[in-house]
Amino acid sequence: MSALTTHPTAEPTGVRALAKRLSLHLDTLPTAAAVVIFIGMIVYGEAAYGRIVQFNTLSNLLINNAHLVILTVGLTFVILTGGIDLSVGAVIAFSSVAGVMLMNAGWNPWLAMLLMVLIGTAFGAASGVLVQYFHVQPFIATLAMMFLGRGLASILSTVPERLADDSPLRSLGTQIEIYDGPKVDDIVITPGVIIAAIVVAAAFFVLHRTRTGRTVYAIGGSEQSAALMGLPVAATKMWVYIISGTLSGLAAVVYTARLGSAQNITGIGWELDAIAATVIGGTLLTGGAGFVLGSVVGALVLGLMNVLITRDGGIPPEATTIITGGILLVFVLLQRAVLARRRE
Amino acid sequence: MSANAHGPSEALKGLVRRQYFWGIVAIALLLLVNLIKDPGYLAVSIGSSGNLVGNVIDILRAAAPIILIAVGMCLVVATGGIDLSVGSVMVVAGAVSMEFLKGAPDTVGSGLAAIGLVVVVSAALGAVNGALVSVVGLQPFISTLVIMLAGRGLAKVITGGQNTSATNETFRWIANGYVLGLPVVFLLALLLAVAMGLLVRRSALGLMLEAIGMDAKAARLAGVNRRALLFTVYILGGVLAGFAGVFATASVMTVDVSRTGYQLELDAILAVVIGGTSLAGGKFNITGAVVGAILIATLDKTVVFLGVSSSATPAFKAVVIVVLCLLQSERVRRMFRQRRAAGAARPAEREVVAA
Amino acid sequence: MPESLPIVEMAGISISFPGVKALDAVGLRLFPGEVHTLMGENGAGKSTLIKALTGVYKIDEGEIRIAGEPRRLSGTADAQSAGISTVYQEVNLCANLTIGENVMLGHEVRGAAGINWRATHRAAGATLEKLGLGHLNPKQPLATLPLAVQQLVAISRSMVAKCKVLILDEPTSSLDANEVEQLFTVMRGLRDQGVAILFVSHFLDQVYAISDRLTVLRNGRFEGEYRTHELDRAQLISKMIGKDIAALKSLGAKASRRARPDAEPLYSAKGISRKGAIDEVDIDLHRGEVVGLAGLLGSGRTELARLIYGADRPDTGEVTMNGEKAEISTPAKALARRIAFSSENRRDEGIVRDLSVRENLVLAVQARRGWARPLPRREQDAIVEKYMSALGVRPADPERPVRLLSGGNQQKVLLGRWLATEPDILILDEPTRGIDVGAKAEIQEYVSVLADEGLSVLFISSEIEEVVRQSDRIIVLKDHRKIAELEGGQGVSAESIVTVIAEDGLGDPSADAAVREEVTT
C-alpha cells in the first residue's frame, strides 16, 4: 500500500507541483485564452475606433449574434462527442423559408414556429440515424443533410420571403429597453437574446449536471471505453445530433424574427462560423474536452470581429470568411500543440 | 465469392459488382424518358460550321467540368479523405482568369497565360489542403471546408465582389470550340480523365492510394509515403478543379462569384459514389466517376427539358447520396448478404473476428 | 465456498471463426462467493469465452444460465444490468475525465439540481477508500495516474455497479507485487460479500494464492474443472499444455544454437530510447542469428522493435549499419536499409484487409520502389508464386481479398510481404499469436530456416518458451529497460529467463515478488 501512495503524487513540491497544478487545468487554458482574446478585442476596438465599450454596442452584439450562440451550443454537443454537424446552416435556410411561407399562407404562427423547430429536430434525427445505425461518417451524413436542406429550401423559394409586418414572430425580435442610458446608449435585449440565454443555461445544466451530459464527455474521451462501461452510447449519440438539429431550428426562429424575412441562401457558411466559435471557445475538435460557456465567448469573438471589420472599413466584407477560416485553423493548430505538449 | 456459382447468377453478380453499370442504365432510362417526350431528342445534326449539334452534344459539354472534379474527388476519396473545396477552387480559377484576361490583349498567348495562372493558383489551393491534411494532420473535411468557404470569399476579393467578364477568343474556344465535330471541353475532359486513369493504374499510384485509404497504419509500416502521396492527390484535385473552373467560365466568359461552381462538390461526391467508390475510402473507380458525371449532366438537362423546376435537383441528388451511403454501409450490406444466404445453402462468409 | 446454485452456468458453448474453432463445447460454472480462475495458454479460448458470456460474441451452440434462468446477453450494458461487470487487461476508462467521474459514470448521485457533484465525489472517495485507494483525489484527472492505478480505479468502478459477477481479464499484467496484493485483498473482500469472481491470470502463484476453483481450457476445448487445492502446479501445467511433466522439463530448451560469426554486427544501436516507451538500450544484430526479446507484457518489447524500424522516432541514440552511421526515423527509411517489421497488431497494422493476397504481398516492395516505378506483372507473379508456395498460403488464390483468409494464413501473407523485400533484418513481433497450431508450427520452422540462410531475425513473443526455442541470443526487458542479454542454448530455459526477470532489482522492496515465487515452483 505504501508503494502505491508513492506513485501518483510523487513529491508535490516546488516547480513540479506548480507544473502539475497547471497541467490539471490545461483543458481550461483555451477557454481562458478565448476570454482574453475577447477582452483584448474590446480594448483594441475601443482604442482604435471608439464607441465599443458602451451599452448600445454590446447590446447589439448580443442581439445580432443570438442565433449564432444557439447554433454554437448545439454544435458544442456534437463536437464534444468527437462528431461534427455541417448541416446547421442549411437547416436554418429550410426551416426559416418553410416557416415564413406557412405563416404567410395563413398558418397559426405559433404552430409554424413549432414546426420550424421540429424541422431541425427531424434533420438532426436523420443525421443521428445515419451516423449511429449505419456508421456513415458524421461529416458525410451531415454534409448530405446540408445539401438536402439547401435543396429543399430552394424548392420552396429562391427569392426572399418577407414576413408580414404584424406577424407575432416579429415580436421575438422586438427590442426591449431595460436601461435608458444617455442618448441612444441603452441596454436593450430581444426575446431572442433571452431564448439564447435560456438555451445556454440549459445546455450548461445538461452537460455538467446530468448523466447524459457526462456520457457526452465520456464518448468524446473514448467511445469504446464508454461502451464497455455500459453507458448508453448509441442513444446519447442520437441525442447530440437531435439537440444540434433542434437548436438549428430554434436559431432559425430567432434569426427570422430579427430579420423579418427568409431566403434559401440564408446561413451559407454558418457551419464554419459555428465550428470556429466552438473551437475558439476551447472545445477540442477531436472531442472530450470543452465548455459550452467557452463556445458562447467564441461566438461573441466572431460577432465582435464583424463589428470591428465594419468599423475599420479597410477590410472588404468579403474577406470575413477568409479571416474566420484562418482563425479556425490557428486555433486547431494551437489545440494540437497543447495536446502534443500534454502527451509528453 | 463462391467458386461454384454458374451461369446467369454469375453474370448478374459481375454486373452488380460494376456499380457504374447501373449508372449507364440510369443514363439510358433518362434518355428514354426524353425520347418519349420528344421522339427527335437524340437526333444529332451537323451545324453550319460542320459541328455536331444536338441535345446529346449539349449533355457532353455540360458533363465536362463535372467529369474533371469527379475524377479529382475520386482520388481524394480513395485515400479516405474528401475535398469539399472543388466548387470554390473553380470560382477562384474563374475569377483569376477573368481578372487577368480583362486587362490582357486578345491573343493566344494571353489565353494560355491565363490557363497557366489558373494551374498555379489552383495547385496552390490544393497544396494548402494537402499540407493541412498530410503535414498538420487535420481531418480532411475541416481543411477543405475552410477552403470551400474562404475560397469563395477569396474569389470575391479578387474581383472586388463583381461578376467579371473578359474577351479572349482562345479561352472562349476551349468551351465553345469543336474538334472533329465534338466539343473541345468534352474531349479535353475525357483526355484528362483518361490520362489520370492511366497514371493511377499503369503506375502503382492506385495501389498506394487504396492502401492508404483502407488502412493508413498498415500502409505506413509497409513503407508507403503517405505524406507525399496525400499532398500529390490534393494538388491533383485542385488542378483538375481549376480546369473545371476554366470550362465553366469560358463558355460565357464571365465569372459569377456567387454561382460559378456553387454546390458542385455535391455533384462531384455524387458522381464518385454512383461510380462505385465508397466514401469510406479504399477501392476506387475512375471510369465509374466519369459515368457518374455524365449521368448527373444528363439528369440536369432532363430536368430542364421536362420543364420540372430545376431547383428540386439538389435535394434529389442529396437524397440519392444518402441512399447510396446506406447501400454502402455494413449494416445494409449484411442485411442483403443474409437474404442472399437464406436462398443459398451456405451462410455468407464470416469475416475473421478473432484476434 | 457455499455449494449453492451457480450464478452463471455455461454449457456446451461453441464459437467458430473461419479456419479456427475458437470454442468447442466448453462449459463453465460460477458460484456466488468464490474466486474462479480460468486457465489456459494463449489462444486456449479464455477471452472468447468471456466475450461469449458478456454477449460481445454470438454463440453458435450452447446455453448460458444466469441465476438459473436461460439468458443471452446482448452486450456490456445488458451484462451490467444482469450484474456482470468486466475489467479488462487494457484500461477502459476515459482519460479526459476525473478519477471520481470514471468511478461513478452512469451512477452519479443525483439531487433536485441534477448531479450532486459533492456527494458523487464523496461516494467515489468512499469506494476508492474501500480498495485502499483513499489517498487518491477523486477530482484529479485520470490521465495523471499510472496505468496500474488506473486499473484499480476500473475495479472500483465495477464495485459501484453493484455487480454479482466480476470478471477480471488479466488485470495483474501491469501491476507490481504490492498492487497485486492490494487487488487480492479487495477480491477476498468482494468474495466474502458473495460476489462471484472470474479471474484470468498467467501467474501460477497468483492463481494458487487467490482462487477457490479453476477451469482449464486448451485449444478451445474444456479440459476440466477442479478445486484449486486438489490440483498441484505440475498437474495444472500439464493440463494446460497437454503434455506430461517429463516432457515439460525439456520444453523450452533449445537443442543447439547457430555459431555466431564474430564479424562485426550488421546492425548496432547504442543508447536508443524514446520517452515513455523504452529507456536507453544497446542492441546488436548479426547475420544468421535469431535474437529473442523476452519480457512481460508492457516491458517494452514492441516499443523497442518499433524504434529499430523507425515506426516511432527515437529520441536519443546512435545506429550503425555495416559500420556506417544510419538514421532510421521512418519505416520507409528502414525498408530502404533492408529492415522489415511485422507488427503484433496484424489486423490494424499488418495486412490491408480489403486488398488481395497479391497486392498485400507486393505492397512493401512496391512502396520501396516508389509509385512511379510499378512492379511488372511478371515480377509480381514471381513473388506471389514464390511466397505462397514457400509459406503454404491456403487457399492458393492470389486474387482473394486477404480478409477472407484465416488468421494463420493472413500471418503467412504478412510474413511473405516482408520476405519479398529481401530484408537483411527481419523483426517479427508476435508472429504466432492468435493463429491455429498448424500454422504456428510452420511459421516457427520457417523462422529457423531463414536464420540458417543468413538472415538476421529479431523475434518477439509473449510466450517465453517460444522465444527460448527460437533464439540464439535473448535480450531480456523489464519495465522499459534492458536487464540482461543471455546466450541461447542448453543452459537457457524459460525458467532461467523468468528468474532473471524476477531477481532484477531484488534489493528493491517493491520487486516483483509474485514472479519470484513462480520461479521457485
UniProtKB/TrEMBL annotation, chain A:
User: What's the source species for this entry?
Assistant: Glycomyces luteolus
Example of a GO MF term: transmembrane transporter activity
Compartments reported by the entry: Cell membrane
- Keywords, in A-Z order: Cell membrane, Membrane, Transmembrane, Transmembrane helix
What CDD domains does the annotation carry? TM_PBP1_transp_AraH_like (cd06579)
State the GO CC annotations: plasma membrane
> How is this protein named in the record?
Sugar ABC transporter permease
Q: What is its main location?
A: membrane
**Tell me, what's a Pfam family for it?**
BPD_transp_2
- Superkingdom of source: Bacteria
What is the membrane topology listed in the Swiss-Prot or TrEMBL record?
Answer: Multi-pass membrane protein
Could you list the residue ranges that cross the membrane? 29-49, 61-80, 86-103, 110-133, 187-207, 238-257, 278-309, 321-339
Automatic annotation (TrEMBL), chain B:
Any stretches that span the bilayer, and where are they?
A: 20-36, 56-78, 84-101, 113-132, 178-200, 231-257, 269-297, 303-327
Q: Which GO terms describe its molecular function?
A: transmembrane transporter activity
Keyword Transmembrane helix among record annotations: yes
The domain of life for this entry's organism is Bacteria
GO CC: one term?
A: plasma membrane
Q: Which InterPro entries match?
A: ABC_transp_permease (IPR001851)
Q: Where is the signal peptide?
A: none
Subcellular location(s) per record: Cell membrane
Q: Please give, as recorded in its UniProt entry, the membrane topology of this protein.
A: Multi-pass membrane protein
Q: Where mainly located? A: membrane
* UniProt keywords, alphabetically: Cell membrane, Membrane, Transmembrane, Transmembrane helix
CDD domains for the chain? TM_PBP1_transp_AraH_like
| Name this protein carries in UniProt | ABC transporter permease
For this protein's source organism, the top of the classification is: Bacteria, Bacillati, Actinomycetota, Actinomycetes, Glycomycetales
Automatic annotation (TrEMBL), chain C:
List the SUPFAM superfamilies hit by this protein, alphabetically. P-loop containing nucleoside triphosphate hydrolases (SSF52540)
- A Gene Ontology molecular-function term? ATP binding
Q: Where would one find coiled-coil regions in this protein?
A: none
Q: Where is the ABC transporter domain?
A: 8-244, 261-504
Q: PROSITE patterns per the record?
A: ABC_TRANSPORTER_1, ABC_TRANSPORTER_2
Q: Is rRNA-binding set as a keyword in this record? A: no
Transmembrane stretches, start-end: none
Q: Which UniProt keywords apply?
A: ATP-binding, Nucleotide-binding, Repeat, Transport
Per its UniProt record, what Pfam families does this chain match?
ABC_tran
Please, which domain of life does this record's source organism belong to? Answer: Bacteria
Q: What is the name attached to this protein's record?
A: Sugar ABC transporter ATP-binding protein
- Source species of the chain: Glycomyces luteolus
